[in-house]
Amino acid sequence: MPSSEDSVRAQPRKVIVIGAGFAGLTAARELEGAGIDVTIYEARDRIGGRAWTHERLGGHALEMGATWVHWMQPFVWTEITRYAQEIYPSPDIEKAYWVSNGTVFEGTEHDLDEALTVLQDKIFEGSREFFPYPHDPLWVMRDESASTQLQERFLKADTGSVLDCLRNGEYSQEQIDLADSYWSAAYQGPTATASPLMAKHWASLSDHRSSLMDEQTLRFKLVKGMRGLYTAIAGDLRTEIKLNAPVQRIEHGADGARVTLADGTTDSADAVVVTVPIGALRHVDFAPALPDLQQEVVREGSNSIGFKIWIKVEGHHSIIAGAPGCHPISLMRSEKFLDDENATILVGFGSDHSAIDLEDVASAQLAVDVWRPDLKVIDCGGHDWVADMWSGQTWATLKSGQFFHGWSLFHESETRLRFAGADYASGWNGVVVDGAIEMGIKTARGLINEFRSA
């Protein structure tokens, strides 16, 4: 008797994957493993998407996008294991600085962590009730046994600002500014529009502990960089990845799809998997048009209008620094010590990509001067993901109201159009590559099962 796997292979199925980031690569690998023909179209001249290991600041391999990984991120850790990748920690920090009302405070990293933990505990309130199953984040809204009161509190937690809970008179301006520093960097955008529910969800994915959340998102990196992992996945594919091949139009129906590239060529398949970030979907024409609710999310965009910058300074400096979102850089820390150059490479994050010139030393110097005017910037660089038409944002963080009414809207389809990518993930939504891999696998398996039952 033929197996279900054989039944798929007996039908000449084909899927078009748009985008060669982690979601597209893992989806393609999964589909090929089931005997499905895959064609990948990538708009850029490289693979990796918003994960991009690139030589900068004197030939050093630096991550322009996604950087940190962890063994508690289940999907990426599976890939790290599969491809025998190794990790190493970011350096320990000796001095910490934070700013409030023009005053620079100084202490140890432990001092900073202690001061933040009190605030994070308040911001995380409700995370255990709201997310008993962190990788099924809307579970309480479907659970018939959940009280109406709990569901109403869940929805309310998706309104207002992530810092609203600190503005009750119990916390000083210094404390509010400290929290603003952290979350301006984490949300990659203004805290005033950041959904409080997303912070609580991140907490649930980190055992409701701020220390573990920091470890998962800022501590461990790949020895060979993200490039070592995404090239390894690509190396397992049989299909050719067509680079410099932006897709302009997608026609989709119940039985298949057809794409039109920028050069006018077309291609047809039984389904199409779109891994384009929400911020770039406006550059693709869909026929029929996306449902009104999805279009509303695309028009509104995410909260991710910030940046990541690499800065080289003279001397050896083991520091971490924070400043509220009104400053160009909200979070900065030492990442690499260059003994042969007597220099340090710092990484910085800010909430507004227009507040700094990523390639201008003078602009970076002004940002660093907020904490340490004595530090001399000698080089800097980064990639403006918000200005990049193929991303339109950095990692996907959510505006107020978008946790319940945003990313999950792209999970449903009445045609053979599917969305995959970190922006649409149920687990680590947006912030790390774990979510991209999750959606690549889920989306591919959904199509495989659909083909088998047809």
TrEMBL record:
> What organism is listed for this UniProt entry?
Mycolicibacterium frederiksbergense
Stored Pfam families:
Amino_oxidase
Q: Which residues cross the membrane?
A: none
Report the residue ranges that make up the Amine oxidase domain in this protein. Answer: 22-447
State the InterPro entries in the record: Amino_oxidase, FAD/NAD-bd_sf, Flavin_monoamine_oxidase
> Which Gene3D superfamilies is this protein grouped with?
3.90.660.10, FAD/NAD(P)-binding domain, Guanine Nucleotide Dissociation Inhibitor, domain 1
Query: What name is this protein filed under?
Result: NAD/FAD-dependent oxidoreductase
